[in-house]
Amino acid sequence: MARKATFNRDDILRRARDLFWRKGYHATSLKDLEQVLELKPGSIYAAFGSKEALFSEALEVYARGSRSDLEAALDAGGSPLDALAQHARSLSALCDQDRPARACMLVKTILEHPDEQSPVRQLAETLMDEAGARFIDGFRRAKAAGELAEDADPIRLGLKFQSDVVGLRAFAQRSDGADVVPALAEDLARSVEALRVA
Amino acid sequence: MARKATFNRDDILRRARDLFWRKGYHATSLKDLEQVLELKPGSIYAAFGSKEALFSEALEVYARGSRSDLEAALDAGGSPLDALAQHARSLSALCDQDRPARACMLVKTILEHPDEQSPVRQLAETLMDEAGARFIDGFRRAKAAGELAEDADPIRLGLKFQSDVVGLRAFAQRSDGADVVPALAEDLARSVEALRVA
DNA sequence: CCTTTACTTGAGTGATCACTCAAGTTATAT
DNA sequence: ATATAACTTGAGTGATCACTCAAGTAAAGG
Fold first, then answer.
1. pTM of the full predicted structure?
2. What CA–CA distances, in Å, run from B95 to A157, B101, B177?
């Protein structure tokens, strides 16, 4: 009856994510996308509707990808505090791999969209809230496991941790980031472990 | 013999700084600048040469402005550690004022310029290195004043502090940033004060 | 096989981009 | 007052922006 698209949608979205993640929304042109996705403009618009819609889907792919590591570690059943510390320590690898950018794509998106009403901005904020909720949940589990002091506030700890991660990753974006990131990641991991009371 | 420009250069640069700070480099068009600066394109180009050159000057104005507070506090002769903690605490005011953006303009610039060779990116990095050097200097003075432990590493502490500030300010950019920033700023200030041994 | 239905193609849309420059204007020096 | 040198003006430059659509192509159903 009909014909299927010749490209793999997930593959295209991952490529779009990497390009947007590296260059940001405004600096990425349709020409850039055509080259990287190996798609003509007509195909892009038939499949995704608009540059903004494509970006939104790419952002969701990014968020989905970031979700897995921490969630897996937390659900593995070991010490929640260890999982959080391990997550911090894993940031030292930020500079090794050849990734599109070291900074968080959600943060980059929020910073380059000052209009709080813009759909892209709101999506990025929602996804960041979800990420924050996962950190908070991590500290909640740590408290439930008796790893934290009685008066520890999981919400405050979770938000502080997210803020620290955001800072570390933004800081890591600098050209000489590789020189300092491992030490900063270690500092962050130890500050988490220092919360342990049991 | 000749004629003077009718506008005040510093005033124009402050306005350009605020616009670029808020919208970022790529999303700011010459049309935007013409409106905000109340200058015709010819005047802008006669005075500054190019959009990039104007941005660079605006970025330097930004950096010069950010420099003053901490430097004054450190040079006031009181406790260096108190000056640093006070600087952290002052971040809680980030959300009160009606500023162009809560995030650091240098960080925003680095994040939206992935090409490490671009002049704008290199300028932003240089200015950020200088800011980091001031933090490091603060901890050096604190150590010299006997406020820090013998084995404290001012460089590491300074970079960690800068990373925390970057994170806090980027985090503060979120729509509901006002709800959490004061608590995060207080946490950061206390973590500085916790370093005190004397 | 042919028909149908979708996907692919890429030249082309008007709008906007950063930027230019010749003509007009005005403060200053003489 | 006049000449001069610098500033201001704004229409206009080619390039690029996000996006469209009619024509071409190919896979699936009968």
1. 0.96
2. 21, 9, 7
